[in-house]
Amino acid sequence: MIQSTRRALLFAAALAVPALALAAPQPAAAEKVLRVIPHADLKNLDPIWTTAYISRNHGYLVYDTLFALDENLQVQPQMVDTWTVSDDKLTWTFKLRDGLNWHDGAPVTAEDCVASLRRWGARDGMGQALMDVIASLTAADAKTIVMRLKEPYGLVLESIGKISSNVPFMVPKRMAETDPFEQMPETIGSGPFKFSKEEWVPGAKVVYLKNEAYVPRSEPASGAAGGKIAKVDRVEWIYIPDQQTAMNALINGEVDYYENPPPDLAPILEAAEGVVVEVNDPLGNQGMLRMNHLHPPFNNVAVRRAVLKSIDQNVYMQAAVGNPQFYSVCDSYYACGSPLETNAGNKLVTSPSIEEAAKMLKETDYDGTPIVLIQPTDIAILSAFSLVTAQRLRAIGMKVELQAMDWSTLTSRRAVKEPIDKGGWNIFHTWWIGGDITNPVLATGMGGGGVERAWFGWPDDPKIEEMRSSFARETDAGKQKTLADAIQDRAINNGAYGNVGTFFVPVAYRDNVKGLIKSPVQFFWNMDVER
Which domains does the chain possess? Predict the structure, then answer.
């Protein structure tokens, strides 16, 4: 009852502007407002500090990038006007386009961008690989960035133009000088919208205001590239954790766009008057079971392998998605349907078995100590994944403690490197969009850089890092494919993480919403609302 009352109050607060935000500016009657139910609450504002997709989506509204991927996943210039590459492929020179200014009015400079790239390169797996081959990264003048490499590198533009977490967003130099492992104290970008801090009500509402000074590119919008034209005056994220309430809000026209409706509600939404339901991403999303490699029991590869043996993708997908229209089974760590999709090394996972997994676990040093599985109850798919994992791990002989929390709290909790008795964790679930896992350098979860460089879970595998580095340096497509196969083989058999299946999340919106961009990532520029 208490939880239901809280949800109702949050919803009312979000739609009506609560007492907490009475002093905040109110939208003018003539303003165009796009009201969105986001897939999660926005709690962490720094999209470099976290890979959470809700923070990435926030980043795309506020910040801009040097390059971006179009709808065909081809790299295009964004903040960059022109660029050149020396004959020896070692010197890359980028010139910024005219009209770039930060939200506080200061001009964007090459020094800002250099500092931003360095901060991103300290956290992102693909950025780390790029930084390893950079001899120097400097600002030749206010609008010119010069990157000198130690050796030719095949993924320069692909790295600084990557579409998803961590996205190399550009920020002012003073912000980029923030420790990469601490959150930036400000939210100042140069993108098509401004973050309205005064109107932010954590747990209820986030507001973005049109950046009147933004100068978009002249090309049509395409994926993350092209002209980012803000066609509405305000974008309001209204967080509604209860799915039924969220669905009714869309059907009743109280909101315009529902980013992540559960597939089991899709038939009801499709039947509702004035509502459109569709899938925007052909590659879909790969569900991940991530183990903490730092502490027992998952610092033991044999225990991790037992967990992988227990994973039955059909069970996970049926529990979390239900409708076969919205999921598929695929053991490849690279996105199914992408060029590097492979069966390499998947003998361990193609024939899941509780009995075999239990036998494997008995042969390890697991002593029955309870493991902590952190469960995001406000994201239905991840919550269901967590429940399935708890049941299956108990079935193979593990003791499991489920700790429920919202997704934003989880994204902070998963950064804790301490053991369980000091606030740590053992397992959490997340997912990666297909665009994030098309190669082993882009696929952050496959990295093995240990505490200093690996993604949450911190696997320490110098060999796999060496192999990923070789992939990035290789320019022959055939040799890249061979390396990618070998990397997947090692990642699976070393228990880097568990792939629990591929699912496709529809979006739902009122039929007066126009200009939706087809992409693996949710963008809000180019979208209009006809009132």
Answer: 64-176 (3.90.76.10), 285-503 (3.10.105.10)
